[in-house]
Amino acid sequence: MSSSTAHLAHHFDDVEQQYDAAQLGMWLFLATEVLFFGGLFAGYALYRYWYPEAFVVGSHRLDLWLGGINTAVLLASSLTMALAVRAAQTSDSRGTANFLGWTILLGSVFLGVKAYEYHHKFEERLVPGRNFSLSEKGDKSNFPDRDGSSSTANGKLDLSPFSPGHVELFFSFYFALTGLHATHMVIGIAILVVLVVAARRGTFSADYFTPVEITGLYWHFVDIVWVFLFPLLYLIR
Is the pLDDT of residue 95 over 50? Predict the structure, then answer.
């Protein structure tokens, strides 16, 4: 790393120490995020073990194509983020700004698709709460009975050996996990906007690219979380 001190904070001895501190700080932050998401994943795993049939029914009410599209979008955003870091490391201010812009665009596409999914779930009354319902337009014939068949009795849906409440539990985890993930996406996009402005001003170079690199670590972590969420929520068969 260059010995340039143009961006050296007063409480560091040199730029190498500042860079190492920034890297360590981000990794420690991501470790706390692993613990944060890990608690939700542990709860999800426990209830999925207890109510596997209900989680299958819940998963089948998610749109696999939209989930797959969002997965591809996020993987593409990881590529553009990595290219932005590389551009910053090679003093390519224009390339840094452009690749950060593409990352913002892809992240926004992801959030747009997720917002459409949420809207659809509201319309289907699959949002946990007093209005939660498994019926879709009055059709209750596509949910299994205890023997694996589908039927209704006296106009009521038989979801034995699980209840609609257990499926509602699946959607509670769905909204909690994907909502928390989307919140991290929004924060990441806000940070990227600030970096784009700085890149256009020529702030980053081979001597100073730390903000872009540590933001890249954060963005890749958020993408990795989705790589776990997609099969856990959408691919239960």
Answer: yes
Give the C-alpha separation, 194 to 198, whole Å: 6
Residue ranges of the domains in the chain?
A: 24-138+164-234
Task: State how far the Cα of 119 lies from the Cα of 17, in Å rounded to an integer.
Answer: 47
Q: What is the pLDDT of residues 127-177, one digit of tens each?
A: 888 888 776 543 343 444 333 444 344 444 444 455 667 888 899 999 999
* Rounded Cα distance, 125 and 177, in Å: 19
Q: Compute the C-alpha angle 75/76/79, nearest 5°.
A: 95
Dist. CA 116–CA 120, nearest whole Å: 6
Our separate counts of H helices and E strands in the chain read 6, 2
CA geometry: angle 100, 196, 217, nearest 5 deg = 50
Q: Which CATH architecture group holds 24-138+164-234?
A: Up-down Bundle (1.20)
Q: Tens of pLDDT along 8-33? A: 554 544 566 666 676 788 889 889 99
Report residue 39 as tokens.
């608690």
- pLDDT tens figures, 41-89: 999 999 889 888 888 988 988 999 999 999 999 999 999 999 999 999 8
